[in-house]
Amino acid sequence: MLPRNLASVALVALATSVAAHAGTVDREFNESFDVSPGVNLQLIHGDGDVDIQPWTEDRLEITVRYHLVSRGLGGARDFEVAFDRSGDTITVEGREIGSNFFVGGSRQYEYVYTIQAPPYLLLDLRGDDGDVEISDWEADIDLHSEDGDILIEGLRGNLDLELDDGDIDLFDCEVGEAKLRLQDGDVTLRGGSGAWHFTLDDGDLDLKDLAASVLEARAEDGDITVALAPAPSFQADLRSDDGDIDLTLFPGLSARFSIDVDDGDISLRAPDITIESKTRRNTSGSIGGGAGDLRIRTEDGDVTLH
User: Fold this and answer.
1) What sign has the CA pseudo-torsion 261, 265, 271, 274?
2) Which one of 37, 60, 170, 184 has the fewest CB atoms closer than 10 angstroms to its CB?
3) How many angstroms separate the CA atoms of 50 and 66, rounded?
4) CA quadruple 81, 85, 91, 97: dihedral positive or negative?
């Protein structure tokens, strides 16, 4: 065992050596690829934010900016980006490198992926903690992330989205099929069409002006609020374990409906509803001409149909 004075000297020497690595790290990476329809971009963005914008050139441009400020005792920390192309798949992966040792003080960092590409590029995104924004895309998007907010505007393709903790905002998305799974957070949609499937654990679902041919929504702890615009065909199945369901059908929509509640009230506020069966826990009938199919169920919540 070292004498106390020698141990103190060793600790000071260690602190001085480690602290020498603390400071600021700035990195910028740029890469471009020629692309054509059918090419897939696989982006592994870690904790970085992502901004994807379309342009008319048959080229993928990627800029990654990384900024780190650390104060206290910590090991050296840096950042690198790996770019690779194999056939029709382009892979981009950013990762922190160096020591994970850090004691006291603070470490603040941010990094951003800015991408410009033709909107026919297939997108496959994998992230840990970062926000994602995508505008005016015309190809399929496959997006899986842990923590972060997602904003998608003007999508004209299929969507497969899985998020653990964050909010999802969708605007004017005309999809063939969209599947969204969310653990903790809210979903807001304004405008759009297609077949939509939502699964939420703890959060609210708010859909407005949606011309859905198919709408399936499952929520455990949260409210479901939907305003459906007319669509050529219409099927909806809305279920909540612990939350209210409020559904508005725009003029021109019609459906046969069945509403079930365990511990809640049913309120029907449309003038052209035909009631075929009614009990305290169930009401069924038709609205409009009964062309579509509508099923609603909640265990601990109220149902309102406008």
Assistant:
1) positive
2) 37
3) 12
4) negative
Task: Give per-residue pLDDT as tens, 16-56.
Answer: 444 444 578 889 999 999 999 999 999 999 999 999 999 99
Query: Chain-wide mean pLDDT for the chain?
Result: 87
Confirm if 212 and 196 have CB atoms less than 8 A apart.
yes
Query: How far apart, in whole angstroms, are the C-alpha atoms of residue 251 and residue 211?
Result: 12
Cβ-proximal residues to 279 (8 Å cutoff; 6+ apart), any chain: none
In the predicted model, what is the mean pLDDT of residues 178-203? 96
Question: Is residue 125 within 8 Å of 107, Cβ to Cβ?
Answer: no
- Contact present, 238 and 297 (Cβ < 8 Å): yes
Tell me how many degrees the CA angle 162-202-208 measures, rounded to the nearest 5: 75
Rg (CA), the chain: 26
Domain definitions of the chain by residue range: 23-127, 149-306
Q: Exposed/middle/buried for 14, CB within 10 Å: 0-12, 13-18, 19+?
A: exposed
Pairing of strands 89-98, 77-86: antiparallel
